[in-house]
Amino acid sequence: MPVYPDPIQLREVEQDLKRVSPLVFAGECERLHHLLGMASCRKAFVIMGGDCAETFSEFSSNKVRDDFRLLLKLSLIMTYASGLPVIQIARTAGQFGKPRSSDVEERDGIVLPAYRGDIINGQEFTLESRTPDPVRMKNAYHQSAQTLNLLRAFIQGGLSD
């Protein structure tokens, strides 16, 4: 776990996040559970795609749309090849963390906290960027909400037909 320099700010951010709506709703989770049950009985095929780690700077509606289209194309190929319905799982809207085996990174004798993903700190190798910032959790929540809203709109708007 990262060590945040300001525990009061961390608690405030955590309290703010406790008050926002969930990103995924119970009905969506139940539907996925049912679909994965079908896959476990070989009545469906699962395909998962997306970024290893999302960044705040790469976000755009075009990127979300393009990633969605790619997943749909892969699903069509697998449906044709397997003759089974395909369950698409997108690794998106919350893939902001980067687990690390070390808490620090050293370059040219300078030791700074390791980059742990945009939800925690920045990639730039400076003390300011690498210091864990809890406000980034709120940024990750809002970007995730935008991504999910776009995906839901694409699905309901017919992009997946």
Textual characterization of the structure:
The protein has 161 residues and is of the alpha+beta class. A two-stranded parallel sheet has the order 1-2. Helix 1 runs parallel beside helix 5 and helix 3 packs across helix 5. The longest helix has 22 residues. The N and C termini lie far apart (42 Å). The model has no long low-confidence stretch (mean pLDDT 95).
What's the structural blueprint in terms of helices and strands?
Blueprint lengths: L6 H13 L6 H15 L4 E6 L10 H22 L3 E6 L12 E4 L2 E4 L13 H4 L4 H22 L5
Parallel strand pairs: 1-2
Antiparallel strand pairs: 3-4
Helix pairs in contact: 1-5, 3-5
Main sheet record:
2 strands, parallel
Strand order of the largest sheet: 1-2
Total helical elements: 5
Fraction in beta strands: 5-15%
Cα distance, first to last residue?
Answer: 42 Å
Structural class: alpha+beta
Mean pLDDT: 95
Catalogue the unreliable spans: none
Rg from C-alpha positions? 19 Å
Shape label: elongated
Query: What is the H/E order?
Result: HHEHEEEHH
The overall strand count is 4
Helicity level:
40-55%
Keyword list:
5 helices, 4 strands, two-stranded antiparallel ribbon, 161 residues, 12% strand, alpha+beta
Summarize the structure.
By secondary structure, this protein is an alpha+beta fold. The protein is 47% helix and 12% strand.
